[in-house]
Structure formats: C-alpha cells, structure tokens
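Hey, can you fold this one?
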Amino acid sequence: MTILVTGATGNIGRRVVDGLVGAGQRVRAMVRDLRTARPRLPEGVELVAGDFTRPDTWPDVLAGADRVYLFPYAYYVPESAALGFVEEAAAAGVRRFVVHSAAAAGFAPSDDPSPLGRHLEEERQAHRGLELMAEATGREWTHVRPGLLAVNALGWADRIRAERTVREPYGDSGYPLVHEADVAEIAVAALLTDDHLGAAYTITGPARVTQAEQVTAIGAAIGAPVRFEELTPWQARAQWLADGCPPQVADWLIELLADAVDGPGMLPPTGTYEEITGRPPRTFARWARDHAADFLGEAA
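Sure. Predicted structure:
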C-alpha cells in the first residue's frame, strides 16, 4: 500500500509523514521542489515532483497510490484545479481521502459583512468545498479540522530572538491553540485504520491560552523572560502593515483577537482528541518546549 502525502513539507504534513514512516508504511510525498524537500523529510520517503496547478504532473504522483492525505489546496488554487486533482485521484485508484480541513468548515454559512465574518465565510467555503469534492468521489473519507494552530506563534520568533519582546493588542485574548502533532496523529490514525471513516473531527488544544500566557510559556521554554507589551488595536494595525501584512488581513486579525478577550470566542475547546486517543491534547507549554530552538537567539 502506498500512501500519498500532499503538503508533505508543511508543519502538519511533515508530522504525518513521520507518523506513517514510524508505522512502517510506504510513503510518497508530492513536492514542488525535490532539492529543497529532501533534507526536510525522512530517508525512505519517495519524493515525486507535483503541483496542484499542473495536471501533467498528477499521473506520476498518483500512480499506485491507495490513500491520500489531502492538503487544503482548494484555498489557494482555482476550484477547477482542486476538483480535477480529486477526480483524477479517484480515477487512478485512490480509495481513501483524509482531508486536512479547518474548523471553519463546520461553521454555519454566514452573511456577516465584517472583515472577520467575510474571512471566515471564505475559509468555510474553501475547506468545506474540498471536503465535498472528496465525498463526491464515493471513496472513503475522513475530515480532520484543526482549530487555530499553536504554530502561528512562530510569527513572533524574529522579535523574540532579537528583543525578547512581543507587541500585540488584546493580551487577554485567547483560544484553545492546537499542537500540530495532535492534528497529525489523528490524520495518521484515519489513514491507517477503519475506525474514522465518514467522520469530521474538529481538533483543538485542551484549554484557552491567552496571548500573554503564550509569551510567558515561550519564555519558560527558552529559559529567558520574554516581555509582553500591549498595543492598542490601531498601534498593532500600523505595526502589522509596516511588517507587510495586507490591510484586510490586519482588520480581521484584530476582530479575531477582540472576539476572544472574555472567553474562547467562536471556537471553544473540543474533547475530540481525548475521545479518540484516550489522552489529553498537548498543551501550549508543551508546544513551546518542542519549538524552543525556533525562539532562541541573542537578545538585543
């Protein structure tokens, strides 16, 4: 059995590859650049050059593949390309899709005109659209829907390395951030066993963790205090724009943080990971320890 992993060099995809290799499976990774991908993936993984926007690469990628971990490329490529890849995969003999989706796929449709409302509806449509493509093939499927990922905190890495400081608005804002290892573990189980067929799993961290608490946990992980400096929303927006963030993204990010000041906002913790594995999800403190090297460096 050959298991195809798309998005294999991403934060979750790499852990899916590791889990499958550790289970003794034959793994094929679809990558755009063979040279840069090889150092990032284990020995023994078959690398095949492929691109969701290049149908000419799909036959080599899909030949002999039985199961596919499907990266959420529908969010980035035309719908016709997304549908074409899924349909060709089914025609080539793929009999199981495990879709890397997002919690937004389970949200109700919305016509909220706010920046955050528009963003979430776009995200819902893209991810749910990919799920529906997999379902429409008539093959086996499982949807893995992570909530907000702890790995987004890597966006602070440069400033923490340089200044040991994080500057953000809404220090009391917090979501149940999920460790990418938890998401990958569920995906691997869905690829290897029949226990999760037809399921859509929303995976979160164990508890709400505020931005200020995240910064404290990172400091503990690297053995050096990291300061949280609270900005007003407008100061933060100006900083993000100066850093190259598009204005529309800055607008919905501010609304996302504001939504979770007094609670977990639109995404409370789920017990899904523990229900499946019998273990509590990894904490943000564990994530910070696992990523301590990403934050280490000389302070200014």
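The first strand starts at residue 2 and ends at 6. Let me know if you want another pass with a different chain boundary.
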